[in-house]
Amino acid sequence: MSAEQMxxxxxxxGADITRQTTTYRASIEPKQRLAVTLRFLGTGESFSxxxxxxxxxxxxxAESVHMTCRAIERQMMASQFPKPTEExxxxxxxxxxxxxxxxxxxxxxxxxHVTLVSPANSGSLYFNYKxxxxxxxxxxxxxxxxxxxxxxxxxxxTSDGGVYSGSALGRAMEAKKLSVPADCPLPGSGAQGPxxxxxxxxxxxxxxxxxxxxxxxxxxxQWRRMFNYRxxxxxxxxxxxxxxxxxxxxxxxxxxxxxxxxxxxVVTAACILHNxxxxxxxxxxxxEESEERGEVLPCVRNMGGNRGCREAxxxxxxxxxxxxxPEGRVSWQEQMI
Length: 337
Fold this sequence. Notes:
This protein has about 325 residues and is an alpha/beta fold. The protein is elongated. The protein has helices at about 5-15, 30-45, 45-55, 60-80, 85-100, 170-175, 220-250, 260-275, 285-295, 310-325, 335; strands at about 105-115, 135-140, 145-155, 200, 210.
């Protein structure tokens, strides 16, 4: 983060993290609170270590981090996660087709576990299939690794449709309340007729007319492998977005020793700052760093049922027909599968 970017963040959250100086003691300056928070997010160091580095009390460091993360969430959420509009969805779909060769795509979606120290008196609520305690981060990303939707805080044990279907995104898509554009023909081809705009996800997500998932199984026909490759090519956008996020904010690779409510604000603040700092010229460097370290956030499994409605199967069939047509084919797809 450059000095100018830090000053800009400080101008947005400074009033929320300023405390009154009294005759008993001088308050901590807002700039120092922000610096401590960014150090915590960027390194994942313990509050004790940060207290020694900044010559502050441990409780002061903890309070500063939680206060600043909540201020970032309050003051920057609306600007970095604007309310979706029909024009915004169309722009995202255009970029997905130009960069990732998937038509009518609203974004790539996935969920990840963020590990915590076992919360007190929580039983098995936060205990996940990896054998750790965690909260769930569910996110939707556009073609340039920018998050467009965010939900943090589901229990680590949640599965079988509880994460996605219970999310604000899942409910709003089902109720058609997100200003998604009307069905339109695929780029360069009207042979398949009007096609709905869809999100792309892995096998953990349900098959819907607005949600495409890959064909299951290993011994599948070539045309199904073709569809899976094209979908995977678009879906990797969210994996790359998570890679950039966790490479920049190393706290996501640590076992956070904070309460779940505070962990929610820490993860949300990291995602907001990810959007704020996103720079296309630096994306490759962050991705290479993530690959070198070999660290990935654990995936969430079984977010929905495997069976879809007849209309969803029909949309998927028309998509793989398009991918094998002259208008939708890419020159390297046969080689890749």
